[in-house]
Amino acid sequence: MGELRHGPVVPQVENLLRERLRRKEWAPGERLPNEVRLAEELGVGRSSVREAVRLLARDGLLDVRHGAGTFVAEPPAESSGVQQLLRRARLLEVYEVRRALEVEAARLAAQRVRPEDIERLRAGLRNRQQRRGGAPAAFVDADLEFHRAIVELSGNALLLNLFLAALPLLRETLIEMVRHETGLPDVSCAHADLLDALERGDAAAAVEATVDNLETVLSGVRAAVAQ
């Protein structure tokens, strides 16, 4: 079982439970330990467990039966589009959070970045590009490391802590996106534009490139969810 870090508790509890479900620690249809026991196991409050369970139930992973308990949901039929819709809805939420965090981080980073930081970012961007089209997890890790470095360069500890708290869920959601979504846009140009803006110290251009990167994916996801 993983350990909780500093930062918002609910996303971490959700990720820990999601990982246990992924490992099939509980079989489909099996009843989970009650709220009190899970809270004790994880070292968190019952309200945090309750909210994490609610999020997992919304994603179709758990089945909350009032008066009976919480059960592992039966896997959907392969032909069902429900899971895809749930995945896209979660992706939409994740990208909205990314946008809020990374736009401000890019603006601040453009004001504070140093030449040696640019070289490190350039190497990170090369690594991202080299992994594009390869294993989804390796590509997502390289992409998130590039963005994490920019958030770190913002110099804002709270922004960085919020980003790191969301990182496990963000990673999992993006890997699912790369694996399952077809016709994903190539946002490599937006990443290159962001690096150029940071190198010039142009905060407005850094914000614009970040918005272009995230909104390109967001617009496609919004359209798919709305269909």
Give the helix/strand layout.
Blueprint: H1 9-22, H2 35-42, H3 46-58, E1 62-65, E2 69-72, H4 82-112, H5 115-131, H6 136-153, H7 157-180, H8 188-200, H9 203-226
Antiparallel strand pairs: 1-2
Helix pairs in contact: 1-3, 1-7, 2-3, 4-6, 4-7, 4-8, 4-9, 5-6, 5-8, 6-7, 8-9
Explain this structure to me?
With 227 residues, this protein is mainly alpha-helical. It folds into two domains: 9-72, Winged helix-like DNA-binding domain superfamily/Winged helix DNA-binding domain (Arc Repressor Mutant, subunit A, Orthogonal Bundle); 82-226, GntR ligand-binding domain-like (Four Helix Bundle (Hemerythrin (Met), subunit A), Up-down Bundle), CATH 1.20.120. The protein is 71% helix and 4% strand. It is built from nine helices and two strands. The protein has helices at 9-22, 35-42, 46-58, 82-112, 115-131, 136-153, 157-180, 188-200, 203-226; strands at residues 62-65, 69-72. It has a two-stranded antiparallel sheet with strand order 1-2. β1 (62-65) and β2 form a beta hairpin. α4 (82-112) runs antiparallel to α7 and α4 (82-112) packs parallel to α8. It is elongated, with a radius of gyration of 19 Å. 27% of the residues are buried. The mean pLDDT is 85.
